[in-house]
Fold each of these.
Amino acid sequence: KAGVTQTPRYLIKTRGQQVTLSCSPISGHRSVSWYQQTPGQGLQFLFEYFSETQRNKGNFPGRFSGRQFSNSRSEMNVSTLELGDSALYLCASSPSPDRVHEQFFGPGTRLTVL
Amino acid sequence: AQSVTQLGSHVSVSEGALVLLRCNYSSSVPPYLFWYVQYPNQGLQLLLKYTTGATLVKGINGFEAEFKKSETSFHLTKPSAHMSDAAEYFCAVSDRIKAAGNKLTFGGGTRVLVKP
C-alpha cells in the first residue's frame, strides 16, 4: 500500500508570491491534516479536512488556506508569502477524524521563501 | 489548551547506553499519546502509541514508553542505543474528544546524538 505522498518535495519562492502544496493520502483514508514545522515554533497544526470540509483549524492567519477534493486529495495554499513561512509542511492522513491512532505522515514539502 | 513538554532539546548518549527521553503533558484527562521519530529531511515515523490498556507500550526499533497517569508522563526508553537512533524525537498528544479530530499537539522535540 502506497504511503502519503506530497508534491513537490522542495520549493523556492520569493516574498509576496503564493504557493500551492499537494497531498495524496493513503488509499482509503479520507481525513487529511496539515502541519507546519519550523526551528522556532516547532510542529504546529494548520488544519484538518474530511469529506471536503474543514473540520478543525489551527492558529494561523487567513493567508493559509486549504481544500480537499472528492478523491480525498488535499491542497494547501499560502498567499503573500513571508520569510517566516519558510518551513517543512507535513501532511498526514487517517481513515476518518476519529482515528488519530491510525494516522500516517508524508515526507513533507520543504518551502524556502527568499 | 493541551501542552506537551519534552525535557532537553538535545541528548547525547554513547552507543550501547540507555536512551531516556522525557515527555510530560498538561491535560487532566489522559489523552492519546504518541512518540514519533524524524530523520533528516524526512517526515514523521510513528515509534509507538498509547490509546488504552497496558501502560507499558512497546514500539519499533526496540523503543518502549510507559504511561504514568499520576505523573502525566510518557517517557521513551531504549535499553541500548545504536548509531542509527541518531534522529529527532517528538512526543505528541491528541484529546479523546470528537471535536479534536486528528489534531496532534507536539512537544518541542529532542535531538539525539549517539557517540561511538
Amino acid sequence: GAVVSQHPSRVICKSGTSVKIECRSLDFQATTMFWYRQFPKQSLMLMATSNEGSKATYEQGVEKDKFLINHASLTLSTLTVTSAHPEDSSFYICSQSGTYEQYFGPGTRLTVT
Amino acid sequence: QQQVKQSPQSLIVQKGGISIINCAYENTAFDYFPWYQQFPGKGPALLIAIRPDVSEKKEGRFTISFNKSAKQFSLHIMDSQPGDSATYFCAASKGDGSARQLTFGSGTQLTVLP
C-alpha cells in the first residue's frame, strides 16, 4: 500500500497567490523527505531535501524564498509556493527516504492561472 | 553534466514482446540502481532495484542486467503487456552518510500495443 500521501492532488490558483502542498509519511517516521518538480514529458527534478527539525537544503537554481519547505514533524513536510506565477505550473512530487529506496507520493498538479 | 543517460526516449512493443531500456552512468561511486514506473498523473513507483555486487536481478517479468565495467544497466520486460505502457525511469544513488539522493535518467515512454 501507499507509504506517502500528498494533499491536494490538484490545485488551481490565481497568479500572485500562495498554495501549500502537504506530504505525509503513512507507515514510518521520515527524517528526510525530498521535493521534486516534473514538467510534462520530462524527468523529475530535485528541488530540495527536507530534514525534520532543520532548514531544507535547496538545489541550485531553486528559490528558497519562493518555495518554502517546512518539516516540523517526522510524518509531515509541506511545500508552499509563494506568489505563484503561471511558470510555476507543474507536477510536484514528494518522496520519503528509506535505507536505499525512495518512496514517492502520488503528486500534486498545480495550475496557476 | 548528465550523470545517468537513458535510451531510448520512446519505445513501442507488441504485446508479448520484450521491452529493453538502457541506462549508462558516469559516477563510479553510485552503488544503488533502481527503476521506477510512472503512469500519467501519478507519482513514480519503485519497480525493481539492483546493487553492483550482482550482474542480474529478476522479479517476475522484470529483469535488471548490470555491467559494472561498462557502467551500464538495463531493464528487460518480458512478455510485455498493454498494462505495462508507462514511463520508465532509471536512477542511481550513492551513500555518503546523509540521505541518499537519486539521480534520474531522462525517462522512456513505453507503449505496448495490444
